[in-house]
Amino acid sequence: MVKNELYVLLIATLFILGLLFALLFYLVIRKAFGIRKRSRVELKIKDSENQIFIFLREGKFNGKFKPETIIDKMAVEELLSKYAELLEGEEEKANLTSLAEHYLTDYYRYRLKSGRWSIRMNALFHIEDFKMGSLLRDIYEMLNKKRISQDEIIHVLRILATMQSDKINGLLTNRFINLSEYEYRNILIRLDGKGFDLFVLGFHKSQRELQYAILDVMGVKKELSYLSFVENIFSSYSGEIKLRALKTLGEIGYVTNIDSFLPLCSSGKWEERMMAAKLIGVIKEKKGCKAW
Asked: Residues 41-61: pLDDT tens digits?
């Protein structure tokens, strides 16, 4: 009986040791392949860096530059990621987008369909950084997938806003109506004047979190063209919306008639007193709030 138990224990121990050695062997082989792959990418980066730099500066393709393998495309991706953070000129940025669309469109289209969440998200980050309009339809179609994470949804909406898609207004006002204020703000801030103004026009029908985000973005933009609208919101709404409008006016730094805001200095709500004091301080009026 004891011998049988020892025999079973020995077999189990050997089995576990075998699994551990197999796992160790797998990790060593995987590490070796990773190091080799990284070396090949770095070598390709050195070979391609000068050609890519010339294209970004002059906008001319080199006939010898043909990234076809996965290693080639990984090298191009790394180089473009580096330049995307450094470039300031609009022409150079346009050249970067052109190069990315020319060589990486199929690469990212394939990765967007990957079964791994991390690969799809990584592709979305690069598509956004490179402003690849060639993948706009593919990105939009991701929203129709049954299995899509919240992170992917937000990132897709961000990209659509960055590329000024005409679908973004309908998506935020009709379909994705339960996002947080922060998520809405992160999307709206990427819109140009025309795209953002559509949300301003639909403000009164929008969900509350979206309204907060619209007012917040107006404060960030600080454009006087929104002054009349924000003052109207302040006078016609109550509660949190009224307070948010007051905050936005403080960010804009101007009001049509400061006298209409002075009564807030003695408001029973400390939030209104604080915002009124800030507004008056920004406008640098001689009239101030009494101490409270």
From this structure: 778 888 888 888 888 888 877
180, part of any domain:
no
Q: How many CB atoms lie within 10 A of CB 288?
A: 12
**Angle ∠(93,96,100) on CA atoms, nearest 5:** 145
User: Hey, is 54 helix, strand or coil?
Assistant: helix
Instruction: Say if residues 233 and 200 touch (Cβ distance below 8 Å).
Output: no
DSSP letter, residue 289: P
154 lies in some domain: yes
Alpha helices per DSSP H over the chain? 2-58, 70-86, 90-112, 117-130, 136-142, 150-162, 168-170, 181-188, 193-201, 208-221, 227-236, 239-252, 270-283
Q: Does any domain span residue 95?
A: yes
Low-confidence spans in the chain with pLDDT less than 70: 1-3, 33-34, 36-39, 62-63, 284-292
Contacts of 156 (CB under 8 A, 6+ apart): 124, 139, 140, 142, 143
Q: Which residue has the tokens 């011998």?
A: 3
Q: Is residue 171 part of a domain?
A: no
pLDDT tens digits, one per residue of 197-234: 999 999 999 999 999 999 999 999 999 999 999 999 99
The answer to whether 159 touches 127, Cβ cutoff 8 Å, is yes
